[in-house]
Design goal:
Layout (H helix, E strand, L loop, with lengths): L1 H20 L14 E10 L8 E3 L9 E4 L4 E5 L1 E3 L7 E3 L4 E7 L5 E5 L9 E7 L2 E9 L6 E10 L2
Antiparallel strand pairs: 1-2, 1-3, 1-11, 3-4, 4-7, 5-6, 7-8, 9-10, 10-11
Length: 158
């Protein structure tokens, strides 16, 4: 009986610690962690406000793009492109997209982009669904005057 109580007490302590650790502002959704390194697999965009999202074909270099989400509340996206000077080889873009992330209500997250980013989103929604990281951004296109939506889907690589 004494052994039974010690074993179940230990299990209860572990369970309480797991539940408590999910409450932190930078904690991940309890079932899946947002922190880690993710690789771009799909990109969707629309042509203007009110139009449906369509998949944008990614090149082999686009698919090397990574998004690293750090425990300290920061993220870094490293993009790649096909370089004409390297005979079609992929080259890393010299500009990285950076910012902060934070947990929102429920199992969601949001990205707050640094001011030097190429696109300044007016909205950002981040979620993990079926092991994939989904990042949806909206920004105002200065050329067309329309609200443009982008959706990126990443898979975890570490």
């Amino acid at each position: 009986m004494d052994k039974f109580l010690r074993t179940n007490s230990a299990r209860l302590v572990v369970l309480i610690l797991m539940v408590y650790s999910c409450g932190s502002n930078y904690a991940s959704a309890c079932q899946e962690r947002i922190t880690g390194k993710w690789q771009l697999r799909h990109e969707y965009n629309n042509e203007g406000e009110g139009t449906p999202l369509k998949e944008f074909p990614l090149s082999k270099c686009d698919k090397q793009t990574t998004l690293e989400i750090l425990n300290n509340g920061r993220f870094i996206e490293k993009s790649y492109y096909e370089s004409s000077s390297l005979a079609g080889e992929c080259a890393k873009d010299t500009e990285e997209t950076t910012g902060d992330w934070k947990k929102t209500s429920g199992n969601g997250f949001t990205f707050l982009y640094d001011k030097n980013s190429v696109v300044t989103p007016i909205e950002s929604k981040v979620s993990i669904e079926k092991g994939k990281l989904k990042v949806t951004l909206a920004y105002n296109d200065s050329d067309s005057g329309h609200k443009i939506t982008l959706k990126f889907i990443y898979v975890r690589i570490s």
